[in-house]
Structures are given as structure tokens and as C-alpha cells.
Write a structure and sequence with these properties.
The complex is a heterodimer of chains A (about 375) and B (about 210). Chain A is an alpha/beta fold and about 375 residues long. In chain A, about 40% of the residues lie in helices and about 15% in strands. In chain A, helix 6 links the parallel strand 3 and strand 4. Chain A is globular and about 60 Å long. Classes of the chains: A alpha/beta (about 375), B alpha+beta (about 210).
């Protein structure tokens, strides 16, 4: 029997992650410094961990309701109101998910019919395209450029809209570019889609890591609330990646559809994580500020470092990545990343891992101590300038 | 007006008087005028440049002026002048190093001493505290609320050293009513530093 024949056509069209090769090389190297980690180096704040432990001691080890525990959904709606001025009903407009990723997958699957087009700004996090393909949709990349501060322009959206456009994804603050969208950027996009039937999936997982001004949620733009599903989570904000917990908030019809998928595929998000998350939302605001301050210091050190090497480096305004350009080296992204790894033992992620428009760039995460970042920057400088 | 989230030391000095207490009070007022009310939760962390520099140095006093300037988005001249001013004003008192002496061959013991004191007319506890902190064995002296008055940290080569210092020097002092000595057996965490940290970075080497 040819077991490969059993695989579905849609799964076969999905490319495996482009970084596997690098991953294997780095794992083998004992003295490599990796700047390739897309998660906080901070450990989850102790009071949050303790809330999780306490819930286990209490015996809270069962399924929760499909949507998530009421207390958590209430805290989520409080938080969204407090931070982004958007009001949701915790009884039917919020679903707690296994990370933001599950929410993204479910949102896409809830609305996309075969042939529907999904607008995806690129470079971007890797999940939107495969999730669209698995749902039978057609991913349409919208290229964002360094000269536009990696913002999505209203013109680009307008030019891509066809009668088949079903969904627009807004992944800002952006992994890998660090680009953000301001209120006025979002208002222009809103103007373009207000007379269409396009739903917006706004992935705001890095919302709290916005360094210039305050993050604006797309759902808070007048007229957009009714057509926006906001995805957020605890991983980046509270350094809780391993707890696997996120949520979606949006129109009750969409949340109801997503909950159908969720209840059959997942049942309910991890119970321990949900109790820890309640504590995070109740008393974690100071943790967010503390970590953001530290990220901000690192961001400046890293941007300064790359600019001193003579690389073009857009100063990212959100998330915890920088995305320097390598035009000066004359190399392609993959070649640059591989040679850098062998030559100076520093691992970065080639820009092409985030879409073809990432060619000519590489991604550096600054989720490391300044001491480590300085060592890595020195090594990269040696590689770039010989 | 909102473009500049913090003010420089120099501007600060122009704006307000020199006394440290009133200065701190007034900074907060200046701060609030810079910050829209909607950002009330965030303003607490919008520190003055001076506070940022002090926190960075408190964490690692070997952070270079250049590095601090980059981290705070300032310039080296401003950072140097702020550090100099903080040294002159006695805000920065010393650049310390945290050492885990347990890992060295030199041995030392330390003890917390609780002292009950009769305050002196006209001078309160200050004179007694001074008479005590002048001894080099006394590393720290705090005036406390609650069941006793002064808390001391004493260091010596041996437990006997410390015990004799308490018995022969502190206890006989005129205003000392009583002493209680607690020897430190093990340091877990001091000044925010965990001595044997068992938390590991177990992140995957690359994640997207």
C-alpha cells in the first residue's frame, strides 16, 4: 500500500515549515547563539504560575464549558474594554481557545467556502496561508514594504478586493516585521471595506507590545465592530506560551460557528491554564509594563546594532522582532542565514520563511538578555563586514 | 507636548528646587501634565530619564554610558551628566557587586540583630543609631516599626565573633534595652538575586 496516497490533496499542497533545516543544524551546534526564538524569554510571572498550581491543588482538573470558564470570559471582556475600549458580551461573544492559533484556524474555517479569497498581508506569521488552504480558500498575499514601515495600505487592500473576497487578515503588530497599524491607518482600511461583505480577522496577539503610542484594535474603529473577529491571547502578553491559551471575540454569529468547531475538535481549552489566565488578567498589568520596558531597551540596542553594521533596519514599533534588510551583502535570505550560522554560529530566520516577500530580509527576535544580544550582534557584524 | 515622555535632568533642575523630597513630588505633577488621562495606567512606567538610568545601573552598574544612551534613546552626554549629578547629590552612593561568598574559600557569618532602644531626649533614635553604625562590623542599620526599634545586619568571621560583639559591645550600651540575635543559615535570595537559580531556558532553538 502506498501510504502517501491516503493523504488529502489539501494537506499535500501545504509546504512544511521552511526552518526545519536550520532547526536541525542549530540543535547540533553546542555553542550557537539563536536569535530565532519567537517567544518571550521571561518565565510566566510567579503569581500567575501559582494560580495554576493552586487550581490543581483544589482539584480543578475537569473539562470546562466549551466557551471557557465564566470568570475568565468576564475578565477577558473587562480587559478588552479597559485596554482597547471594545465591549463584548461574555455569554456569547467570546470563546477561549488553545492559543491564538486555534482561534485563527477556527475563524477561517467558519467563514471560508471553497474558492473564497482571503487577503493576507505579507511577510507574516506562518499559519494564515495553510489554514486558508485547508479550508479550501485561496490565499491572496498583500505585500507590505519597509519603505511603508511595513504597514498595510488601504490602496493595497482596495486593489486586491474581488467579488470572491471573504476575509481580510490584519496581523498587527506584525511578526516578523514589527510593523504596526495606527488608528488613522486602520480608518483608511475601514473606509475601503465598509461597503463590502468582507469579514476581518484581526490578530492582535502582540497588542500590548506596542512601543510608540497605544495599540488600536480594529474592532474599535467605527462601523468595524460588526465585522471584526479579534484574536488575542496570553502567550506574548504574559509570557505564557506553553500554557496554550488564547481567545477570540467578535460577532455572536461567528463566535457561535467557531464554537461548533471548537466543541467537536477541542472540547475546551486547558483548565489549569484558564485559572492561571484569570489571575493574569486580574493582576498582571504591572507584569506587562515591566516586560515591555525591558523589550523596549533591547529593541533599541538591536536596531542600533544593525544600523551600525550598515544594514537597513526599519525601527520596529511592535512585537519583539527586528527585520533587517541584507541588500548590502548581495546575498539571498536563505544563503545569508545559512552562512551566518556556519560562519559565526548565530541563528536567525530567513525572511522567506514568512512569505516570498520576505526575500532580502532576516528576522531577529530580541527575546534574549542584552548581554547575549550584544554578543550576537558582534558576531553578525563580523560576518557582514568581514 | 506628548512627543517627549520624559524630561531631562537639566530641564528638571530648571523647573524645580533642589530638595530631594520636594523634587520627587513635583516630578509627578510635571509627569501627569505630559500624560493624557486615558493613559493613567501607563504613566507609572513612563519614568524620568534619571529613574531609568538609576534602574539600569542598579541592575548592572557596569552598563556603559554608551549602552545606556542607546537603551533609553538618549545621548551619551546627557546620560553622563545625569550620572554625575546623581553621584554629586548622593543619589548614587556606591557601585556594588553581588558576591556569593559561599562559593569562595573565605568564610563569613552574618546575623540579624533586633535591638530595643530607649530613645534619647531631643535626638530620638538617630544618635544611638549613629553610635552603632560607626562600628565596621555593622553592615546595615534600619529603624523599624513594630516590636523592636533597630534592625542590624552584623558580619563577622565566626559565630563567636558576632556573639561577642553583641554581648560585649552592643548589649552594654546605655540606651540598649535588649538584643535578639538571629544567625543567617542560608541565603536564598538577596537584593533580587536568587543564589541558586534552577529555572532553565528550555525554549526550542527556533520557533516562528
Amino acid at each position: 500500500m502506498n501510504i502517501n496516497k491516503l493523504l488529502s490533496d489539501s494537506v499535500k499542497t501545504i509546504q512544511p515549515s521552511g526552518i526545519r533545516k536550520f532547526f536541525d543544524i542549530v540543535t547540533e551546534m553546542s555553542d550557537a547563539i539563536s536569535l530565532g526564538v519567537g517567544e518571550p524569554d521571561f518565565v510566566t510571572p510567579w503569581h500567575i504560575r501559582e494560580a495554576g498550581i493552586y487550581s490543581l491543588e483544589r482539584g480543578s482538573t475537569h473539562y470546562t464549558s466549551n466557551l471557557g470558564i465564566v470568570e475568565l470570559r468576564k475578565e477577558i471582556t473587562n480587559y478588552l474594554m479597559r485596554r482597547f475600549d471594545i465591549e463584548y458580551d461574555y455569554t456569547n461573544q467570546v470563546v477561549v481557545t488553545v492559543g491564538g492559533s486555534e482561534a485563527i484556524d477556527m475563524c477561517i474555517r467558519s467563514v471560508v467556502n471553497p474558492g473564497d479569497e482571503v487577503l493576507i498581508p505579507e511577510p507574516c506569521f506562518v499559519c494564515y496561508k495553510p489554514c486558508t488552504i485547508l479550508a479550501g480558500g485561496v490565499p491572496i498575499p498583500l505585500v507590505t514594504k519597509a519603505e511603508d514601515k511595513f504597514k498595510l495600505t488601504a490602496e493595497a487592500v482596495k486593489a486586491a478586493i474581488t467579488p470572491k473576497t471573504k476575509l481580510l487578515i490584519l496581523p498587527f503588530p506584525n511578526n516578523p516585521t514589527g510593523g504596526i497599524t495606527t488608528k488613522s491607518d486602520l480608518e483608511k482600511i475601514a473606509e475601503v471595506i465598509k461597503d463590502t461583505d468582507i469579514l476581518v480577522l484581526s490578530d492582535e496577539i502582540y497588542a500590548e507590545l506596542t512601543y510608540s503610542g497605544k495599540h488600536t484594535s480594529f474592532a474599535s474603529i467605527p462601523g468595524m465592530y460588526e465585522r471584526t473577529v479579534v484574536v488575542n491571547g496570553f502567550s506574548k502578553t504574559y509570557a505564557m506560551t506553553g500554557w496554550r491559551l488564547g481567545y477570540a471575540a467578535g460577532p455572536k454569529e461567528i463566535i457561535a460557528a467557531m464554537t461548533k468547531i471548537h466543541q467537536f475538535a477541542i472540547m475546551s481549552a486547558p483548565t489549569t491554564s484558564q485559572y492561571a489566565a484569570v489571575e493574569a488578567l486580574k493582576s498582571g498589568d504591572d507584569d506587562i509594563l515591566r516586560m515591555k520596558e525591558e523589550y523596549n531597551y533591547r529593541r533599541k540596542v538591536v536596531v542600533d546594532g544593525f544600523r551600525n553594521m550598515g544594514l537597513d533596519c526599519f525601527e520596529p514599533e511592535g512585537a519583539f522582532y527586528v527585520f533587517p534588510g541584507i541588500a548590502k551583502t548581495g546575498m539571498k535570505s536563505e544563503e545569508f542565514s545559512e552562512k551566518l550560522l556556519y560562519d559565526q554560529k548565530v541563528a536567525v530566520v530567513p525572511g522567506t520563511a514568512f512569505g516570498t516577500s520576505g526575500e532580502g530580509f532576516f528576522r531577529v527576535s530580541y527575546c534574549y538578555s542584552i548581554k547575549n544580544l550584544n554578543i550576537a550582534l558582534e558576531r553578525i557584524a563580523k560576518f557582514v563586514n568581514g | 507636548m506628548f512627543a517627549k515622555p520624559y524630561i531631562t535632568n537639566r530641564q528638571m533642575r530648571k523647573l524645580i528646587s533642589h530638595s530631594s523630597a520636594s523634587r520627587r513630588g513635583k516630578i509627578e505633577i510635571i509627569h501627569l501634565s505630559f500624560v493624557p488621562p486615558t493613559l493613567a495606567a501607563e504613566w507609572r512606567l513612563i519614568m524620568t530619564l534619571e529613574e531609568k538610568i538609576l534602574k539600569i545601573l542598579e541592575e548592572d552598574c557596569r552598563t556603559s554610558v554608551h549602552q545606556i544612551a542607546v537603551m533609553t534613546g538618549s545621548d551619551e552626554e546627557t546620560v553622563s551628566s545625569i550620572i554625575k549629578a546623581c553621584e554629586d547629590e548622593g543619589i548614587i552612593l556606591r557601585y556594588n557587586t553581588m558576591i556569593n561568598w559561599e562559593k569562595t574559600t573565605s568564610s563569613a557569618v552574618s546575623a540579624f540583630i533586633e535591638l530595643k532602644i530607649t530613645p534619647q531626649r531631643g535626638e530620638g533614635f538617630d544618635k544611638v543609631a549613629e553610635r552603632i553604625y560607626k562600628y565596621p562590623q555593622v553592615k546595615s542599620v534600619f529603624l523599624m516599626s513594630g516590636g523592636f526599634d533597630l534592625a542590624l545586619i552584623i558580619e563577622g568571621k565566626t559565630m563567636k565573633d558576632v556573639a561577642l560583639f553583641v554581648a560585649e559591645t552592643l548589649a552594654p550600651m546605655e540606651s540598649v534595652i535588649s538584643t535578639a540575635t538571629h544567625f543567617v543559615l542560608k541565603k536564598y535570595k538577596d537584593h533580587g538575586v536568587v543564589f541558586e537559580n534552577n529555572e532553565v531556558d528550555d525554549r526550542q532553538v527556533i520557533t516562528l
